[in-house]
TrEMBL record:
Top-level division of the source organism's lineage: Bacteria
Coiled-coil ranges per UniProt: none
Entry-linked PANTHER family: TRANSCRIPTIONAL REGULATOR DAUR (PTHR35568:SF1)
TM annotation in the entry: none
Organism: Rhizobium calliandrae
Residue span, YheO-like domain: 21-122
Record-annotated Transcriptional regulator DauR-like HTH domain positions: 151-212
Protein name: PAS domain-containing protein
């Protein structure tokens, strides 16, 4: 349970206090825990007044300016969903409720930030398992007793052609390697993604990201 901490702010003029919504924030956070945080902003001070299930490493009393920039206009009562990026690069799906005085003037925001990174990873994995890419023919590697050896040879050829070392590959080299393996049909191998992630020292999510881009380029090339 998050500890309720008020921000030094001028006294509300008509009984409105953003911290009245702290129990609502806690209820939403408990329901969606550990994947979502709920942040209450006080527009009168432009500061964070409350955080439930903190996943963004922000703090009560911190500036609200970044959130206000992401949200933009406060004309609607509910804004979003819209995409945000967490401090660690993970993608968040966010929605904001505008808290208004009786006159309709906004005095606070209640923002729900939902971490969708695991969902996107699961989606990409399911897409990989159900999609039929290319001609539908299995690569020759699938007919050999040791597909890992064949993949290693393909990676070695890639590195040799470019004069690169596996330990010194940049992000763009990882993307090029994934694209090359996709062109040859190697991603039809069920366990290639975790194996490749382990060899390159990068996450599976990064492999899937490069693979999506490679397949987008392939579809685009066919269209033209």
């Amino acid at each position: 349970m998050s500890k309720k901490v008020a921000v030094n702010a001028k006294e509300p003029t008509s009984g409105e206090d953003v911290l009245h919504f702290a129990p609502v924030a806690e209820a939403i956070a408990v329901l969606l825990k550990p994947h979502a945080e709920v942040v209450i902003h006080d527009l009168r001070t432009a500061k964070i007044a409350y955080i439930a299930n903190n996943i963004s490493r922000r703090h009560v009393g911190g500036s609200s300016l970044t959130d206000l920039k992401d949200i933009g206009s406060l004309d609607a009562d509910v804004i979003g969903p819209y995409r945000k990026t967490n401090f660690d690069g993970r993608q968040l799906k966010s929605v904001t409720s505008v808290l208004r005085e009786g006159s309709g003037a906004p005095y606070g925001l209640l923002c729900v930030n939902f971490d969708i990174a695991l969902m996107e990873l699961a989606r990409d994995a399911l897409t990989m398992l159900t999609a039929f890419q290319g001609s539908g023919k299995q690569p020759s590697a699938l007919f050999q007793s040791d597909w890992q050896e064949t993949v290693n040879a393909a990676i070695a050829d890639f590195l040799s052609e470019r004069g690169l070392a596996a330990s010194a590959l940049a992000k763009e080299d990882h993307a090029s390697l994934v694209e090359a393996l996709e062109q040859e049909g190697y991603f039809a191998i069920r366990n290639l993604v975790p194996y490749l992630a382990r060899l390159l020292g990068i996450s599976r999510a990064t492999i899937y990201k490069h693979l999506r881009e490679a397949r987008r380029k392939k579809v685009q090339a066919r269209a033209t």
